[in-house]
C-alpha cells in the first residue's frame, strides 16, 4: 500500500516516515505542503491507499485539506494527526466522516509507535467486515412477504450488572433471515416498516417471540428481564397494552420482567395517545426504557412527560469515554440525573475494558456491548453464559 504523509513540520514528517518503515510500510511519500500533496493525489488518487494529514498547517489547514480530498474524489483511508486538544481532533474526525471519507482515526502528536500500530490494524478490520452486499434497499412488499413467511428472527444481547457481572437480562434485536442476502440488520428494514404501516405487525412478531423465549427461560430457572424495542408509531394503537398483557400471559412471562425500549423516531400527530399508552403499560408494571438517551430524539422533555424506569445512555457517550473527559462529564451528569429520578441506568456500546472500569466507578447499573457479548440467537445463550461465568470475575474483581 502506498501512503502519503502531509505535515508542515519536517521533524514530524521524518518521525512518522521512520515509524511507518519500522512497521513494514516502505512505500511512503512525504509532503511539506498541502498543495503539493493534493497535486500528487489528484494526479494519481487511486494509487494511494492511506493519507496521514496534520490538522495545523499554513495555507491549507486539515479541515480544508479534507474538503479538497472529497473534491478530488479520494477513496483511500485517512488518518488525522495533530497536537491540538482532544476535542478539536475528534470534531475534525467527525467532520471527515460526515464527508463519507474512510477515516481510520486520529493520532496525537508526538505519534507513538503503538498508537500507529493500533490505527493501522483498524485498516484491516474495517476492510474485512463491511460487505458491499449489505447495501440493499428493500420494498414494503418484500418486507410484508418476510413477515408472512416468518423470516424475521430475534437475536438477544446480554445485559449484565456492572457491580457483580451477573446476567440480569437481554435485549431482543430483530434480524431478517433473508433467503439471498443472509442476515439483514434492522437499520435496513425497521425504517421501512415504520414508514409503510408494517411496524405494528413487526413489533408483534418480535414481542411474541421474545415473550416465548423469556417464558421458557423463566420456566427453566433463568428469570431474565427481556427488553423489546418499540417505535413511537406502535403507541398510536390504543389496545397495545392489552395485547402485550395477553401475549405475556400466554407465554408465561411475568410483566414485571418485560421492558419496552422507546426512542422517539418521529413527531406524533396526536401526542396524547403515546402518553396514554405508556402510562397504562407502566400501570401493568411493565418497565419502560428511554433508549439512545442523549441523541436528541430521546430528550429531557420525554423524561419529564413519561414514567420511564430505565435510562439507556447512547453508545456515542459510552464508547471511548475513558479517553475523553468531555464524555465523562456528560456521563456523570446523566447518571446522577437518572439516579435522582429513581431510574435504572444502562450503558450501551460497551466495547472496551477501560470504559467498563469507568462506568463501574460512576456506579452505572448495567452494561451492554460487545465486551460482554454480541447479539446472538436464543439457542446460543447457554453457551455464552458458561463462557461469561468464566470471564466475569476478572472484570469485577477490583472494587469499583
Ligand atoms: P438499539 O435499541 O439502540 O440497539 C443497540 C444496537 O447497538 C444494536 O444494533 C446492537 O447490535 C448494537 N450494539 C450492541 N453492542 C454494541 C457495541 O458494543 N458496539 C457497537 N458498535 N454496537 C453495539 P442493531 O441490532 O443493528 O439494532 C439497531 C437498532 O435497530 C436498535 O438500536 C433499535 O433501535 C432498532 N431495532 C432493533 N430491533 C428492533 C425491533 O424489534 N423493533 C424496532 N422498532 N426497532 C428495532
Ligand atoms: Mg434498544
Ligand atoms: Mg440504543
How would you describe this structure to a colleague?
The structure is a single chain. This protein has 400 residues and is α/β, with parallel strands linked by helices. The protein folds into 2 domains: 3-129, Rossmann fold (3-Layer(aba) Sandwich); 137-394, TIM Barrel, CATH 3.20.20. It is built from 16 helices and 15 strands. The strands form 2 sheets. An 8-stranded mixed barrel has the order 6-7-9-10-11-12-13-14. It has a 5-stranded parallel β-sheet with strand order 2-1-3-4-5, sandwiched between helices. 36% of the residues are buried. Ligand C2E binds next to β7, α8, β9, β10 and β11.
CATH topology of the largest domain: TIM Barrel
Helix content bin: 40-55%
Q: What CATH architecture of the largest domain would you give? A: Alpha-Beta Barrel
Distance between the termini: 45 Å
CATH class of the largest domain: Alpha Beta
What's the overall average pLDDT, rounded?
91
Helix/sheet category: alpha/beta
**Unreliable segments (pLDDT under 50, ≥5 consecutive)?**
127-134
Strand order of the largest sheet: 6-7-9-10-11-12-13-14
Percentage of β-strand residues: 15-25%
In CATH terms, the superfamily of the largest domain is: EAL domain
What is the tally of beta strands?
15
Shape: elongated
Biggest β-sheet: count, sense, barrel?
Answer: 8 strands, mixed, barrel
Radius of gyration, Cα only, in angstroms?
Answer: 24 Å
Number of helices: 16
The distinct ligands, each listed once, are: ligand C2E, magnesium ion
**How many structural domains does the protein architecture include?**
2
Amino acid at each position: 500500500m502506498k501512503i502519503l504523509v502531509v505535515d508542515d513540520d519536517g521533524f514530524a514528517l521524518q518521525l512518522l516516515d521512520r515509524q511507518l518503515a519500522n512497521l513494514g510500510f516502505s512505500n511512503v511519500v512525504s509532503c511539506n505542503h498541502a498543495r503539493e500533496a493534493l497535486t500528487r493525489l489528484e494526479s494519481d488518487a487511486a494509487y494511494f491507499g492511506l493519507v496521514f494529514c496534520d490538522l495545523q498547517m499554513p495555507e491549507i489547514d486539515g479541515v480544508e485539506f479534507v474538503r479538497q480530498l472529497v473534491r478530488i474524489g479520494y477513496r483511500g483511508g485517512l488518518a488525522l494527526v495533530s497536537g491540538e486538544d482532544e476535542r478539536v481532533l475528534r470534531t475534525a474526525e467527525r467532520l471527515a466522516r460526515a464527508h463519507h471519507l474512510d477515516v481510520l482515526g486520529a493520532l496525537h502528536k508526538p505519534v507513538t509507535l503503538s498508537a500507529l500500530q493500533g490505527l493501522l490494524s483498524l485498516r484491516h478490520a474495517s476492510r474485512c467486515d463491511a460487505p458491499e452486499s449489505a447495501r440493499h434497499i428493500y420494498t414494503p412488499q418484500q418486507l410484508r412477504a418476510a413477515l408472512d413467511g416468518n423470516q424475521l428472527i430475534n437475536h438477544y444481547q446480554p445485559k449484565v450488572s456492572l457491580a457483580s457481572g451477573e446476567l440480569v437480562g437481554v435485549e431482543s434485536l430483530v434480524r431478517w433471515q433473508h433467503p439471498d442476502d443472509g442476515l439483514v440488520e434492522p437499520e435496513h428494514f425497521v425504517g421501512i416498516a415504520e414508514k409503510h404501516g408494517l411496524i405494528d405487525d413487526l413489533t408483534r412478531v418480535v414481542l411474541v417471540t421474545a415473550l416465548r423465549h423469556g417464558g421458557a427461560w423463566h420456566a427453566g430457572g433463568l428469570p431474565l428481564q427481556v427488553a423489546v424495542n418499540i417505535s413511537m408509531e406502535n403507541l398510536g394503537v390504543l389496545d397495545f397494552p392489552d395485547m402485550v398483557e395477553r401475549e405475556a400471559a400466554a407465554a408465561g412471562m411475568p410483566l414485571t420482567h418485560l421492558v419496552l425500549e422507546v426512542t422517539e423516531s418521529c413527531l406524533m400527530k396526536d401526542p396524547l395517545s403515546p402518553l396514554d399508552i405508556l402510562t397504562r403499560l407502566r400501570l401493568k408494571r411493565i418497565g419502560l426504557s428511554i433508549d439512545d438517551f442523549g441523541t436528541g430524539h430521546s430528550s429531557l422533555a420525554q423524561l419529564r412527560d413519561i414514567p420511564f424506569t430505565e435510562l439507556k445512555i447512547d453508545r456515542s457517550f459510552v464508547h471511548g469515554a475513558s479517553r475523553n473527559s468531555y464524555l465523562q462529564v456528560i456521563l456523570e451528569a446523566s447518571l446522577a440525573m437518572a439516579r435522582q429520578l429513581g431510574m435504572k441506568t444502562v450503558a450501551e456500546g460497551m466495547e472496551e475494558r477501560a470504559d467498563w472500569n469507568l462506568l463501574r466507578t460512576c456506579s452505572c447499573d448495567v452494561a451492554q456491548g460487545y465486551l460482554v457479548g454480541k447479539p446472538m440467537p436464543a439457542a446460543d445463550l447457554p453457551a455464552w453464559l458458561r463462557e461469561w461465568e468464566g470471564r466475569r470475575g476478572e472484570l469485577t474483581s477490583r472494587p469499583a
